[in-house]
Queue: 2 jobs
Job 1
Amino acid sequence: MIPVLAVFMVLPILTELALTLADLGVIGTPRLRARAYQYGAFWAGLLDNWRPNYAAQPQTMFVTYSFLHANLWHLTGNMIAFVVLLQLLRNRLWGWRFVLVYAGSAVGGALGFALLGTALNPMVGSSGALFGLAGAWKWLDWSVIPGRRCRTLIAARDIAVLAALNLVMWLTEGGALAWEAHLGGFVAGAALMAALRRAPDQ
């Protein structure tokens, strides 16, 4: 699991540190962040008629955006959430299944943003993938609740709480919140977890 953590945790941290140092003029050029976004952020326009910087960009951006962040505070919040979710999923989602859910949720977050979003600005951050981990966690909890009616009511309550949390974040951040990516990631994570639980171990 250590190599996975290196990719999903250490790489975003090192990337943001480098971009922050460039913003401050310590290394490279202050334009480094803009260049990183230009090549690695999710741009919905690339799915329409925008010209990509390289041939595979319309495909790779579905994952690369999750390794970039807006600033150190954005990164810190996401990394704290990542550590908390790792603890909640400990011994419940590990190894290649964890990789599949995380990466699939990042793609699901990008799809949610592409289908529901209207902003032409770039989208960055690992929150789509993190909401996918939250979706996997909640699906595991819901799956052991006896009774369909009780399970439905608890799932509805949990989803309402997450929706309220997103509304609060959207208001406090002045609308600069990719809730579409959160929704897409959550749905993808829950769906992938459901599929994995139904699949044979071998």
Note: The longest helix spans residues 148-172.
Job 2
Amino acid sequence: MIDPRLPKFDWGMRVIAVADLLNDGSYPDREPDALLAGAGTVGEIVQIGRHTETDAPVYLVEFPDGSVIGCLEEEIARAS
């Protein structure tokens, strides 16, 4: 059994994408590998869930264009 990691970020926290976030197939209305949010884009965490296989936190981040993207901890950082 894998020990669950505690979330590093909280709901409502402003975060920044540390790399380009690309469509991994989660957005069927967008082309595969389409840019969803560019590196440096600031968003807000609107929900925190868990990856079913790894039990790692997954953050739903709302970006300025209204898109909500599931992000792993290594894909975001606290915005200053």
Note: The mean pLDDT is 92.
